[in-house]
Design goal:
With 72 residues, this protein is mainly beta. It has two helices and six strands, in the order E-E-E-H-E-H-E-E. The chain has one domain.
Length: 72
């Protein structure tokens, strides 16, 4: 099975992996099945309690969570 998705901000503290497509043996998985799959949810406030907000960047196949709103 190959799943294709991306992390999106759910709110100021949480990011969720949303599945866009899936394939099994070269055949596309239906939207209904993708919606039923459990995905990853990250509570950024637990990883960095001092952060006010964060942004999600995508580059070269990686996902980067960056803190924003903090004054140095």
């Amino acid at each position: 099975m190959v799943l294709i998705g991306l992390f999106v901000k759910k709110d100021d503290h949480t990011a969720k992996l949303e599945l866009e497509a899936g394939f099994v043996d070269g055949m596309m998985v239906g939207r209904k099945i993708l919606d039923e799959l459990i995905t990853i949810e990250i509570d950024y406030s637990k990883l960095n309690p001092e952060a006010e907000n964060f942004t999600i960047e995508r580059a070269n196949g990686s996902v980067i969570f960056r803190e924003i709103g903090k004054q140095l």
